[in-house]
């Protein structure tokens, strides 16, 4: 059995499969977004100091 591109497209349409998934236009941020962002930034800054990374390496 050798499937062509048209067969694959029809099969995917028939079975409601997709290669991409639509995202909602307005995605909501988590309630603790700012806290997590600050924590991550502190973590990255700490690693940068420990390992002496230049800013262009991040």
Search tags:
mainly alpha; 0% strand; elongated
Structure summary:
The chain is mainly α.
Describe, in plain words, how this protein is organized in 3D.
The protein is built from two helices and no strands. It has a domain at 29-58. It is an all-alpha fold. The model has no long low-confidence stretch (mean pLDDT 86).
Ends: how far apart? Answer: 48 Å
If you compute it from the alpha carbons, what radius of gyration comes out, rounded to the nearest whole angstrom? 22 Å
Structure summary, number of beta strands: 0
Strand content: under 5%
Helix and strand run: HH
Contiguous uncertain segments of 5+ residues? none
The overall average pLDDT, rounded, is 86
Helix content: 40-55%
| Main sheet specs | none
The general outline is: elongated
Number of helices: 2
- Given the helix and strand composition, which structural class is it? mainly alpha
Please render the helix and strand layout as text.
Blueprint: H1 5-14, H2 33-51
């Amino acid at each position: 059995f050798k499937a062509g591109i048209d067969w694959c497209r029809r099969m995917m349409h028939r079975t409601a499969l997709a290669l991409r998934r639509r995202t909602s236009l307005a995605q909501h941020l988590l309630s603790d977004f700012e806290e997590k962002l600050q924590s991550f930034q502190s973590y990255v800054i700490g690693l940068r100091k420990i390992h002496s990374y230049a800013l262009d390496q991040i």
